[in-house]
Write a structure and sequence with these properties.
Layout (H helix, E strand, L loop, with lengths): L1 H16 L17 H7 L1 H44 L5 E7 L9 H14 L6 E6 L7 H21 L7 E5 L5 H4 L3 H4 L1 E7 L1
Parallel strand pairs: 2-3
Antiparallel strand pairs: 1-4, 2-4
C-alpha cells in the first residue's frame, strides 16, 4: 500500500511540476506513470506512431530516389547543352509524336509526322538528333520510365531505317517526371520529342 501511495504521489508531483493539470485517461490511480498506463491507454497511439515512423522512412527513401533521378537528369541535360554549344548549329527541326496507352508502337499519324521531319532534313548536315520519351502518370515510376525509353527507341529505330545516321542520335527518357510539362491530358503526355539540329 505504501509503495502504491508513493508511486501515486510521485506521479502527481511530476504532473503538477509541468504546470498543467493532466487527468489519468484510465481513471486508475494505481496506473499513473506506469507501463500499465501506456499499454492500457496509449497502445493504439504508440502503434500509430511506429507506423508513422515506418511510413516516413519509406517516403524518405522514395524522395531520395527521386532526387537521385533528378540529379542524373540534370547532368544529362548539362551534357547535351555542352555538346550543342560545341556544334555550329544553323537550324533546327522538331516534331512530337504520340502513343496509345501502355503502347510503344508507331501509329500511322506518328510515322507520317516522322516522315515529314526526315524529308525536311535529308539534305542538311545533321549535327545531332535528340529523341526524348515521356509517359503519363498512371503506373509505377519504373514502369513509366521503361515505357518512355521503349517509345524513344522505337522512334530512333524508325529514323535510322529511314536514313538518319545512328551515330547522330542521342536518346533520353523521362518517364512520368515531366508529364505535366508535356501536356495537361494523359494522351498528350504519352509522347516522344524528336529534335534535329543541323
Amino acid at each position: 500500500m505504501k509503495k502504491k501511495l508513493i508511486l501515486g504521489m510521485a506521479g502527481a508531483l511530476l504532473i503538477a511540476g509541468c504546470g498543467t493539470k493532466i487527468e489519468d485517461p484510465c481513471k486508475d490511480p494505481d496506473a499513473a506513470l506506469s507501463k500499465y498506463l501506456i499499454e492500457k491507454c496509449y497502445a493504439d497511439y504508440m502503434e500509430q506512431i511506429l507506423k508513422n515512423k515506418e511510413d516516413i522512412a519509406k517516403l524518405n527513401q522514395r524522395v531520395s530516389a527521386v532526387e537521385a533521378d533528378v540529379e542524373q537528369l540534370k547532368k544529362e541535360h548539362e551534357e547535351i547543352k555542352a555538346e550543342i554549344v560545341k556544334l555550329k548549329i544553323t537550324g533546327k527541326e522538331q516534331v512530337r509524336v504520340y502513343f496509345a496507352r501502355n503502347r510503344f508502337t508507331l501509329s500511322a499519324d506518328a510515322k507520317a509526322a516522322l516522315d515529314e521531319l526526315i524529308n525536311a532534313v535529308k539534305d542538311k548536315d545533321i549535327k545531332k538528333v535528340i529523341v526524348v520519351g515521356y509517359a503519363s502518370k498512371p503506373g509505377t515510376r519504373s514502369y513509366n520510365l521503361n515505357l518512355s525509353m521503349k517509345r524513344a527507341q522505337v522512334v530512333g529505330a524508325y529514323l535510322v531505317r529511314n536514313g538518319i545516321p545512328v551515330e547522330k542520335i542521342r536518346m533520353a527518357s523521362y518517364g512520368e517526371e515531366l508529364a505535366d510539362l508535356i501536356g495537361s491530358s494523359r494522351p498528350e503526355q504519352r509522347a516522344v520529342d524528336v529534335i534535329v539540329l543541323y
